[in-house]
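Note to self: user wants both folds in one dump. Writing first protein now.
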Amino acid sequence: MKRQGLVSEFGWRLTQTPYKLCFMARPPRIPVMLPWECKVIYFITLCIVPRCKALANDAAWKAVCETLGRLDKWNTYCIMTMPDHIHLLTAPRDRELSVAAFLKWFKRWFNESYGAREEWRWQPGGFDRLLRTSESIHEKWNYIRENPVRAGLVAHWKQWPYREGFADDE
């Protein structure tokens, strides 16, 4: 019998067999293949569903800051909290630390700090990209910094209050 592919509300590919509906496994994570002298820095995006204006407020920003404080095995260089997603550049202090674990603990500790809500939830996983050159790091830093301007939320990035890691003199 032929399998039919479906897509869940989270964008995961589902496979329907005559026996059950099951999730296909995510592909395995590729190990860090950078020379040991190169620093490991990730560009990470976490999103919420449904997409709504839930994160751009003082209470959510406070929860973000508290959560980053608890993630003490990671150095976060910059972060921008948008209404429905969060961008950040972060590096593990030990290059073998897992991005999946970072995402899990960030979401768990944020939820503990922010409190109960029924309007939205975190999307499973998150988007992450290992940045390999200083040029790509600077490019992503600029992308994150200009995000509220591109979204039409402010005229200049300095006007957006839910950010950290961007010098005001640039």
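First done. Writing the second protein, which came from a different request thread.
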Amino acid sequence: MDEGYEVILSEIHGMSQRGGVVSTELKIGDYKSSIIEQSKADVLLGFEPVEAVRGLEKANKNTKIVFNTHPIIPSSLSQTNQNYPEISEIIASLKENYRYVFPVEGEKLAKDAGSLLSLNMVLLGSAIANDTFPLSKKAVIKSMKNNLDSRFHDMNIKAIENGYDAVKQY
């Protein structure tokens, strides 16, 4: 918004307190609807591998798929005696079917930045490392500084940088 872009957001809650999905969709630009159509996402961001897989209906061959490799095992799996898929199999399948797949050790990078709570900034840094992302790293850091208490600036800058560097290495 500080860069002059229109921003529209939607959030869909699927009984999240009982293990359901929470999906947030963000559009930057001149759009009328907040919902991203199937196969139209430019970037798919997942806080864990299966979450990224659940969002694949929004992806196409050119979608940048960025996700934290550390799984968050839903309680529903233990209740149904199902196993969480192997991370290596998820990554291999995604790379076989999509052109731009960026698995990121988000939890490790967040801890390196100073707190696991900075995982969202690691993933944001990973997303902006995409050359087609409409916001620059400088603009994102400026916005973060304008919206967070100064006590958290250094940690979040490091988290953004960690995520950015993790994707730029590919």
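Dump finished. Worth passing along: The chain has seven helices and five strands.
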